[in-house]
């Protein structure tokens, strides 16, 4: 099975660039022989079928869905796809005013307010650019369609970043603090590992070993020191241990008071 997975990955690495080249040729108006198009479609169907069959076999051997996908798809690609999917789902939850990971009895602390103006401004600029490109490319239907899809997705991506922050507030549970940022950071910190909690406003953050800065609007308002490090996630790399965390909340004072009480009684 390992040899088959390696073969599928190798074919995928060769097939995807070939598909991109073929798409560029079509968009550029180059006439591609029908036989080449048919061969590309058949090859894509065979690769997809082989991947599906291998996935089913891995599942039957006891792999979870995540583990099976992890063996077929490189981890960085899987993380990127998962991140994009969470952003799009966050848009739906945002419209429905639904929060993620907040159970009855938990205390939720929003943290997206101070980035809203920047996000909306950036989304407006992207929207203006979408309209402008649609006008400029009106005489090239194929190019216009591709650019329009990319531009609309960019607007959704920007709004999705804000939606993920709105629907994923920081959460204080009876035994842990859950810190989150957009759709890529979700860190559980046991209360018994928190040694100190400080309320401090910081606007400049340098990358330092052992520290994690979750700035919102280029600022953090709370700092916690840990007695034992926790593993902080990286977007594509392996987690790293951190012992100092700086983060922001819309109502930093309320979170500071609640966290201090929870740590004292833990």
Structure characterization notes:
This protein has 266 residues and is α+β, with helices and mostly antiparallel strands. Among the domains are: 2-73, no CATH class; 170-265, no CATH class. It has 7 helices and 8 strands. It has helices spanning 2-27, 34-60, 65-72, 75-95, 116-136, 141-167, 252-265; strands spanning 107-109, 170-172, 176-181, 185-190, 194-202, 211-214, 220-232, 240-247. Strands 1-2-3-4 form a 4-stranded antiparallel sheet, covered by helices on one side. It has a 4-stranded mixed sheet with strand order 5-7-8-6, with helices on one face. α1 (2-27) runs antiparallel to α2, α2 crosses α3 and α5 packs antiparallel against α6. It is globular and about 70 Å long.
Spell out the blueprint of helices and strands.
Blueprint: H1 2-27, H2 34-60, H3 65-72, H4 75-95, E1 107-109, H5 116-136, H6 141-167, E2 170-172, E3 176-181, E4 185-190, E5 194-202, E6 211-214, E7 220-232, E8 240-247, H7 252-265
Parallel strand pairs: 6-8
Antiparallel strand pairs: 1-2, 2-3, 3-4, 5-7, 7-8
Helix pairs in contact: 1-2, 2-3, 4-6, 5-6
Provide a compact summary of the structure.
The chain is of the alpha+beta class and 266 residues long. It is 54% helix and 20% strand.
Number of helices: 7
**Which structural class do the helices and strands define?**
alpha+beta
Series of secondary-structure elements, N-terminal to C-terminal: HHHHEHHEEEEEEEH
Helix content: 40-55%
Q: From the alpha carbons, calculate the radius of gyration and give it in angstroms.
A: 23 Å
E-strand count:
8
Largest sheet: 4 strands, antiparallel
Contiguous runs where pLDDT drops below 50 for at least 5 residues: none
Which range does the strand content fall in? Answer: 15-25%
Average pLDDT: 84
Shape: globular
Sequence of strands across the biggest β-sheet: 1-2-3-4
Distance between the termini: 48 Å
């Amino acid at each position: 099975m390992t040899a088959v997975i390696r073969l599928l990955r190798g074919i995928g690495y060769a097939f995807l660039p070939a598909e991109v080249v073929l798409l560029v040729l079509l968009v550029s108006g180059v006439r591609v022989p029908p036989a080449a198009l048919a061969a590309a479609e058949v090859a894509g169907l065979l690769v997809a079928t082989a991947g599906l069959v291998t996935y089913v076999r891995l599942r039957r051997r006891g792999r979870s869905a995540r583990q099976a996908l992890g063996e077929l798809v490189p981890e960085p690609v899987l993380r990127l796809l998962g991140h994009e999917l969470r952003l799009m789902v966050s848009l739906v939850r945002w419209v429905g005013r639904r929060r993620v990971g907040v159970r009855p009895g938990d205390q939720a602390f929003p943290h997206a307010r101070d980035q809203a103006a920047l996000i909306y401004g950036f989304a407006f600029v992207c929207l203006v650019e979408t309209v402008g490109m649609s006008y400029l490319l009106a005489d090239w239907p194929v190019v216009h369609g591709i650019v329009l899809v990319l531009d609309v997705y960019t607007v959704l991506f920007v709004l999705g970043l804000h939606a993920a922050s709105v629907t994923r507030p920081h959460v204080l549970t009876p035994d842990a603090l859950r810190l989150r940022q957009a759709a890529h950071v979700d860190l559980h910190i046991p209360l018994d590992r928190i040694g100190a909690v400080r309320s401090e406003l910081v606007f400049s953050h340098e990358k330092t070993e052992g520290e994690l800065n979750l700035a919102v609007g280029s600022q953090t308002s709370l700092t916690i020191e840990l007695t034992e490090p926790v593993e902080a996630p990286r977007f594509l790399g392996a987690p790293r241990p951190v012992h100092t965390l700086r983060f922001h909340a819309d109502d930093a004072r309320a979170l500071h008071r609640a966290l201090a009480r929870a740590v004292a009684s833990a």
